From TrEMBL:
Organism: Gracilibacillus oryzae
Protein name: Carbohydrate ABC transporter permease
GO cellular component, one term: plasma membrane
Pfam families per the UniProt record, alphabetical: BPD_transp_1
Subcellular location: Cell membrane
GO biological process: transmembrane transport
Origin superkingdom: Bacteria
Family: Belongs to the binding-protein-dependent transport system permease family.
InterPro entries, A to Z: MetI-like, MetI-like_sf
UniProt keyword terms in alphabetical order: Cell membrane, Membrane, Transmembrane, Transmembrane helix, Transport
Length: 272
């Protein structure tokens, strides 16, 4: 359906206003990160002189590189764990015949209705009793099992013709080889979508790393950014904004690189 010309104008005008409202804080923060303190305190939005002193100060005053490395390790490990377990579980729910398969799947999906806050205390007690406080294992392992990821990949795997599975059985190909050589390549878009989603969610975690760590050796960048904000005075907003830009930069790069795959995967998931 084609919209009339005046409706198109109103539509794009609303989109432009919404984009400005949404991105204005990010643009202001980016601009403030290059401002000297005098410009910030005077209320300027555009700096009179660009300076990198705020970025130098972030790394000089705070172990930000260590926090970035911790976040990268935690996010990558969680992403890989979710991809492996979710794809294996989805394969079992689609290609393996066993009694109560559909009922078990619906029970598994029902866990999506349980908020994370309801399970955080049992998870914390588990990693504490196992001695996993201040370890990458304690930060990552509770997030490997993901009902949403299993649901997304199951919907993708169901589009694979069952005839391929029957032909592989006739050819003597086992489940593992069929999973690796046929299923995963055909579901590449959904796997990329789930990987990007898992990485971004893990990178932005705050509450769980705050509970599971007690020192700076394994703390992630979100905790480090909060510590930076609490340590700086009110007239050091340029340093804080520089730290925020550094923290958000990897997620923006990943989002832009995987934007097409992410949009395609979400569209396919909605259609299925």
């Amino acid at each position: 359906m084609t919209l009339p010309k005046y409706q198109k104008v109103i539509f794009y005008l609303l989109l432009t206003v919404s984009a400005v409202v949404i991105f204005a804080p990010a643009v202001i923060a980016f601009s403030m990160s290059f401002m000297p303190n005098q410009d910030i305190m005077s209320g300027r939005i555009i700096p009179t002189t660009f300076t990198l002193d705020n970025y130098v100060a972030v790394f000089d005053r705070f172990p930000l590189f260590n926090f970035l490395l911790n976040s990268l390790i935690v996010s990558v490990v969680i992403m890989i764990g979710q991809l492996v377990l979710s794809s294996l579980a989805a394969y079992a729910f689609v290609f393996l015949e066993f009694k109560g398969r559909d009922i078990l799947f619906f029970v598994f999906i029902a866990t999506m209705m349980v908020p994370f806050e309801a399970s955080i205390i049992p998870n914390f007690q588990t990693i504490r009793d196992m001695g996993w406080i201040n370890t990458y294992t304690g930060l990552t392992l509770p997030f490997f099992a993901m009902a949403f990821g299993t649901f997304l990949l199951r919907q993708s795997f169901k589009q694979i013709p069952k005839e391929l599975k029957e032909a592989s059985e006739i050819a003597g190909i086992g489940d593992l080889k069929f999973y690796l050589t046929v299923v995963l390549p055909m579901a590449k878009t959904s796997l990329v979508t789930l990987g990007v989603y898992g990485f971004l969610t893990s990178w932005n975690m705050y509450l769980w790393p705050l509970l599971a760590t007690t020192d700076d050796t394994t703390r992630t960048v979100q905790i480090g950014l909060r510590q930076l904000q609490s340590q700086e005075q009110l007239n050091e907003w340029g340093v804080i904004m520089a730290g925020a830009i550094i923290v958000v930069l990897p997620t923006l790069i990943l989002l832009f690189l995987g934007q097409k795959k992410l949009q395609k995967g979400l569209a396919e998931g909605a259609l299925k």
